[in-house]
Write a structure and sequence with these properties.
globular, five-stranded antiparallel beta sheet
Amino acid sequence: MTRAERERLLAELHARRLAPADAVVRTLLGGKTGSVLAVGDAGGPVVKVWDDLLGAERCAATLRMAGHRASAIVPRVIAVLPDPPAVVMERVEGKMWAQSLNAGEAGSIERARRVGEALALLHRATTNTPVIPDHLERFRAYHLKKAALRLGAGGRSPEIRRVAAAVITACAAQRRCLAHGDLTLLNVIVAPDRIAFVDFDMAWYGDPAFDLGMLAGSLIGGHLVAATA
């Protein structure tokens, strides 16, 4: 993000009374779809910057859909800005679950239980949604294609490939609820009073088991294996 874009962003936030004119803007993350910025001190908003307004509007639509009946586990959308294209959200004060695990903090089992309950709430709250945004269908096709490509990679036994193919076929048949689509330890925020899921950029409407599998894979591959080593 250029200096001029940051200045325009801060001016727009100030005009909407969402931040003081001299607020410090710092980068939290730089992802595939855009940067995530923290504006001001604790309590100030978080801003996800996009390359285009359509992407920002789709992101906001997904968050609002998820938060309609599960507001505690999804950042609240405050505004969508046109220039630079961005989504302004509440800041969830807490740690990434990955940070908590890597720090060896006590209560890991209880924290995992809370994450599971929050994920179940997300899936229940979006079950049988009457109107599904088109972009969620687009990412559905993306995820199923990616899973099939991974299945086609070498080095797996015929039995594993057979079971994996059956799982993908079953997953493709499901249109049950909103699936986060990128549920790793980095996208779970753990706070004393809440669990929140962030970065719904790859969300799709389909099988809730997809999120469980991805989160389990992140937990095993990203933390347990490293901890054992």
